[in-house]
Design goal:
elongated; binds uridine-5'-diphosphate; binds magnesium ion; eight-stranded mixed sheet; 53% helix; 8 strands
Length: 318
C-alpha cells in the first residue's frame, strides 16, 4: 500500500501539536487507500515542543521527529521534512490546524487520480488578520502582474500535496534557500487545485509579524523575478535624459539672466537641494533593491546547508 508522509514544521507549537494529534486519527483512519507517516520537524522551538513531540512519538508507531539544531525558519524546516520523509506522497501542513484535517482525504483522492501536485486554494481569508490578508494579497498580485503571467498560484501557500516525483525534483534544485511558492509551480507535472476555507489558529500566535512577512516577500520576489532590476535600468535611463534636459535649461537661464533677484536665488537653491535629496533617496532605494538580489546570490553561492539536523528519531517499527 502506498504511503503518505505528513510533513509538519513546528516552532513553539507545544499546545497546537497535542491538539493536532488528538484529532488526526479520526480523519486518517477512514482513508483506506493509503498508509500514513508523520514527519514532525522541531525548528529550534524554545518551549516544550520537542518534549511533546517525543511524548507523541512514544505512543505512536508512525512518527519520525527531525530535531533541527536551532530555529532556521518554516521553509528550511519543511525542506528538512521533505528530505527525511519516505512516503510515495507528502502533504505539507501547519501544526496549528489552520490547514483543515478533512483536506487530507481530499488530497489523497487527488493522488489516487494521478496528480503530482495538489494545491489547496484558499477561497476566503476572512480568518486571517487584515495585515496578513492585505500583504499576502499584494504579494501574489504584484509578482504575477510584473511577470505578466501566473508564476505563483494566488492564495496557495505551503499547504500542498506532492508526489514522490515532485518531491525529488524539488530536492534536486540547488537553491540554498527554498522558495516553495515559486519552486512548486516551476516543476510542472500534473497539477490540480482544491478550494477550501482556512481555519483560525487553534491556539498560540502566528510566527510571522510585519517585519518577517516583508522580508519573506522581498526574498521571494527577488528569487522569482528580475523585473525590479530591469525597471531600475529603465528608470535610470529616463531620469538621466530628464536631468540632462533640466541641466541645459538651467544653464541657459543662468547665462541669459545676469542679475537674478535674491529671493529667486534662494528659491532656486532650495529647489536644487530638494531635487538632490529626492535623487539620493531614489538611489538609496535602488541600491537596496540591488542589495536584495546580491544577498540572494551570496546565500545561494556559499556552500552552506539551509538547515542542520541535530537528531532524527525514527519510527518505532523501523
Ligand atoms: N514555523 C516553523 N519555523 C518558523 C516559523 C514557523 O517551523 O520559524 C512553522 C509553525 O510552527 C507552523 C508553520 O510553520 O506550523 C506556519 O507558521 P504560522 O502558523 O506561524 O504561519 P501562518 O499560518 O500564520 O502563516
Ligand atoms: Mg499557521
Amino acid at each position: 500500500m502506498e504511503k503518505i508522509s505528513i510533513v509538519i514544521p513546528c516552532y513553539n507549537e507545544e499546545e497546537a501539536i497535542e491538539i493536532y494529534f488528538s484529532k488526526i486519527d479520526e480523519y486518517i483512519n477512514k482513508i483506506e487507500d493509503f498508509k500514513f507517516e508523520f514527519v514532525l520537524v522541531n525548528d529550534g522551538s524554545k518551549d516544550k515542543t520537542l518534549d511533546i513531540l517525543k511524548r507523541i512519538h512514544s505512543r505512536r508507531d508512525d512518527v519520525t521527529i527531525v530535531n533541527l539544531s536551532r530555529n532556521f525558519g518554516q521553509m528550511p524546516a519543511i525542506s528538512a521534512g521533505l528530505y527525511t520523509c519516505k512516503g510515495d506522497f507528502a502533504i505539507i501542513m501547519d501544526a496549528d490546524l489552520q490547514d483543515p484535517l478533512y483536506m487530507i482525504e481530499k488530497i489523497a483522492a487527488k493522488f489516487k487520480e494521478g496528480y503530482d501536485v495538489v494545491n489547496p486554494h484558499r477561497i476566503d481569508r476572512k480568518k486571517d488578520s487584515s495585515l496578513k490578508r492585505n500583504t499576502a494579497g499584494f504579494f501574489y498580485k504584484f509578482v504575477n502582474k510584473i511577470e505578466g503571467k501566473k508564476v505563483i498560484p494566488e492564495n496557495v501557500n505551503c499547504f500542498r500535496g506532492l508526489s514522490r516525483k515532485a518531491i525529488d525534483e524539488i530536492l534536486k534544485m540547488k537553491e540554498r534557500d527554498r522558495y516553495l511558492l515559486a519552486e512548486i509551480p516551476y516543476i510542472g507535472f500534473k497539477v490540480c487545485t482544491i478550494d477550501f476555507s482556512r481555519e483560525e489558529r487553534i491556539c498560540g500566535k502566528t510566527k510571522y509579524n510585519l517585519k518577517k512577512m516583508t522580508r519573506y516577500a522581498l526574498d521571494n520576489i527577488s528569487a522569482i523575478t528580475s523585473f525590479p532590476l530591469y525597471s531600475i535600468i529603465k528608470f535610470g535611463a529616463l531620469s538621466s535624459l530628464l536631468t540632462f534636459v533640466n541641466f541645459l535649461v538651467m544653464l541657459i537661464l543662468f547665462i541669459c539672466s545676469n542679475h537674478l533677484p535674491m529671493n529667486q536665488i534662494i528659491f532656486m537653491t532650495l529647489f536644487i537641494v530638494s531635487v538632490i535629496l529626492l535623487c539620493s533617496s531614489i538611489i538609496i532605494f535602488f541600491l537596496g533593491v540591488i542589495g536584495v538580489y546580491l544577498h540572494n546570490i551570496l546565500i545561494n553561492t556559499r556552500e552552506r546547508e539551509n538547515f542542520i539536523i541535530d537528531e532524527v528519531i525514527t519510527q518505532k517499527d523501523k
